[in-house]
Amino acid sequence: MAAQKARIISADSHVMEPPEIYEKGLDKRFGNRAPRMMREYLGKKGTFFFSGDQVLKIRQVDEQQRARGTDPAYGYDPVKRLEFLDQAGVEAEVIYATLLSMVMHAANIPENREMCRAACQVFNDWMAEFCSANPKRLLGVGAVTMDDPQWAAGEIERMRKKGLRGVVINTVPPDGCPAYRHDSYTRVWSAAESLDMPVTLHIVTGKVRDFAHVHTKEENEAAPGWMFDLFSEVKAPLANDFIFGGILDRHEKLKLVCSEFEVNWVPAFMWGLDQIEGPFASRVALPHLKMKASDYMRTRVWHGIIDDPFGDQAIPYIGSSQVCWGSDFPHVRSIGTNAQAFVADLFKNLTPADCDKVVGGNTAKVYGV
Questions:
Q1: What is the pLDDT of residues 44-80, one digit of tens each?
Q2: Which helix (DSSP H) or strand (DSSP E) does residue 313 occupy?
Q3: Alpha-carbon gap, residue 358 to 322, rounded angstroms
Q4: Long-range contacts of 119-124 (CB under 8 A, 24+ apart)
């Protein structure tokens, strides 16, 4: 792999959408609940973004990008973003939101839900415009909150017509909503399946708050625990809903992506699924599945990896065809223009054929590149 350039297609990159896109119109409809910029928070001056329930220090994000030698404009200017891809040796990117992920978390507050749906529509329109600069290289993923399945299914259809390539949903349904295995969500899975819109469970969009955005002594003390909860949140919906809940059996063409959770946990999770069907089967009333429960993780779910140092050990258990590398650009863990060298080193213990799948081939297959 080191001898030639790899075909790199990032399965998980991000825009840094301008906060102002959420203020235009939403503030008049939703008042203080609307996402907005703040110049002071808890008595501290600065540039902050209020999502509806969390607060992010914007200037700190810009400073982190400059420290890595990347221009903050790469996050919101598609022309500059394409220049960056050329410099980094990256063919294309699957691109997610940044600020909207925090807004989706705010859907756990019932009075915020209409606002969150409106914010998703605003972002989906903005993302479609961003990616129109080069739809073959900028593969935009829109978002829906899942408190209203009928609205979500309609918005998936709308964003597909705009050229977006996939959809993020809440990692787990917002507070008070049924579990995803409930029949009320069937229209969502059917829309995504028929339109070939991969469904992504992405970190930060569920019920656990983002540990990286803390401001008080109490929040800092709780943040380490939040991090571990955040990276584990995807396990319950995978097991309860998509696998044992039968979603993947009922929708055989649905593509499910787990993004930014890394892969080192997946072999142990697969072992746990086998335990449920094995030694513990007599204690749990299990549905009849079309295949072994752990095989869904090998054949029906795609798993994102960014910089997991145990990836080369986990991938043989999962299967090289189900793992997709993403840069996480322009976030704190992301690459600069060193993408080729980075993936060559991260996957140096894989065969060249497996490397080709993980760093680009699998993502091309999932998103029809």
A1: 999 999 999 999 988 666 666 666 667 889 999 999 9
A2: helix 311-318
A3: 8
A4: 119/22, 119/26, 119/35, 119/52, 120/144, 120/145, 120/155, 121/155, 122/21, 122/22, 122/24, 122/25, 122/26, 123/17, 123/21, 123/22, 123/97, 124/155, 124/158, 124/159, 124/162, 124/164
Residue 57 pLDDT: 87
Q: CA 81 from chain center: how many Å?
A: 19
- For a pLDDT cut of 90, what percent of the chain falls above it? 87
CA distances to 11, 39, 233, 242 from 208, rounded to whole Å, are 23, 26, 8, 20
223 backbone φψ class: left, alpha, beta (φ>0; ψ -120 to 50): alpha
- Show the beta-strand stretches assigned E in the chain: 9-14, 36-41, 44-50, 55-57, 92-96, 138-143, 166-169, 199-202, 256-259, 301-305, 323-325
Euclidean distance between CA atoms 93 and 137, whole angstroms: 6
Are 158 and 218 in contact by the 8 Å Cβ rule? The answer is no
What pLDDT, in 10s, does the model give residues 108-121? 999 999 999 999 99
For the CA atoms of 81, 86, 89, 93, the dihedral, rounded to the nearest 10 degrees, stands at: 40
Distance CA 229, CA 236 (A): 12
pLDDT of residue 225: 96
* Count of Cβ atoms closer than 10 Å to residue 269 Cβ: 17
Domain 9-17+73-367, architecture per CATH:
Alpha-Beta Barrel (3.20)
- Are 6 and 350 in contact by the 8 Å Cβ rule? The answer is no
- The pLDDT of residue 72 is 87
CB proximity list for 48: less than 8 A, separation 6 or greater: 37, 38, 39, 40, 41, 55, 56, 57, 58
pLDDT above 50 for 2: no
Cβ contacts of residue 332 below 8 Å, gap of 6+? 64, 212
pLDDT at 1 over 60: no
